[in-house]
């Protein structure tokens, strides 16, 4: 048992100053069998602490229905075993380039921007969630012999709102539920963020990627006393579909880290190891200074250009950081753990059979609804996945433009069964006008809910209705397909698969990969367009030929010797085979 406290200048553990050299690692972005390896890598870099968020929407898919609530506790136990302290950031909002910033779609759907405020309905949902989650944390606090040193209140709240009453309620809730270690907030080092996001009497920390001296000076303007900590030192960055791959030069990052430590501050590397947004949980941003512009969906990889890459390998940044950290650590770091095994022989697996998308929807989709206007994804209870809207254009009538203004995010459109184009938020009008009568289907996808800024939690779907010329097309049938429907592998295997005709049509395709020497692998989908892929029932995430990501990480523990089953849910234009290859060489 230990006592950890926030002193006047330093953190104190059992009365002695302790500098936190922490690294972010999200347990939900790393296959559980690999937690031990990744935590050992953090130690080998010279860190003494690990930090994780907790994604509410992952653990409470439907109100009051919990999934794998113990995962956080198991991770904290693994951290303890690895000899690391732990910082927990339970949200309820986490940002983190995660779907909806971690908020469940069933709360932001009905509440919109009343989430993350003092709103009573939101508050009751948070209270229920925290009551379910917090025992995992409380039992593992440092004053009870566990690794947990600190717990965060909300996340960068000052970048979003100014509801001080909401933050105070959250603080009180955490205290009522038994949090006895110090609480803290974290915000950008700007006056409006620190004043909007701080809670009187609770430690404030700052998030930034460089310029530690100036950032801490701003923080000191608000908090003259207390230990300094950069809670998110952005040593890399994340990628968006359709944009370049973000890289931060190791030397530059190491110098920025040195500056933080020279200020006498503690640090949390964001990310030490980013991992992967498996399961289609990657979120999205909105472009522009005020984060209100174009949709920028996040890629599946959360490599983050972090010191430990997506494959768990040390990069040059790892070694540069290790050198900087060595000067501040109490003891020399342990050596690197053995690298995880890599796939032996590469595998080329042609698709064997497929089920057309309409039949997948018929078997795994939710109930079909009918109403005057298209319902949102939220109204159909679809978090990740797609919705098919079906509408009739009355006739006879001459051709007019068909549109879905306010579409979020993307729809492949069929008119009388023939593909007629792809609609997006920017291009919500079909290229060719449509004559009536006609039957129109819009296979609409969410590309990830926005997780940062004023548009956080905005709904998905044909939010502005469907129109022919100026006329609303009323009488819309809608049916949702949640990605978690594929968790039931027996139901997927029972679908009416038939030999793939090679026409590239959207559907669920199946391939069998003969594995010799199971281990970490890279999956490529040459010739495929966009969708989701599973290996032995484990969802690797979204793929998209748009790039920059051109392959998906397959954690070794997902593979096994012999035949491995690959499912590809292609939503636009299918390829004919998938490729698996081993992972060689150091990270870059
Ligand atoms: C903010 C958030 C994090 C993450 C980073 C960017 O600091 O608090 O959750 O989104 O931005 O990666």
Automatic annotation (TrEMBL):
Residues 508-562 form the Beta-galactosidase galactose-binding domain. Belongs to the glycosyl hydrolase 35 family. Keywords: Glycosidase, Hydrolase. InterPro entries: B-gal_1-like (IPR026283), BetaGal1-like_ABD1 (IPR048912), BetaGal_gal-bd (IPR048913), Galactose-bd-like_sf (IPR008979), GH (IPR017853), Gly_Hdrlase_35_cat (IPR031330), Glyco_hydro_35_CS (IPR019801), Glycoside_Hdrlase_35 (IPR001944). The keyword Hydrolase applies. Residues 11-327 form the Glycoside hydrolase 35 catalytic domain. Residues 374-474 form the Beta-galactosidase 1-like first all-beta domain. This is Beta-galactosidase. The keyword Translocase does not apply.
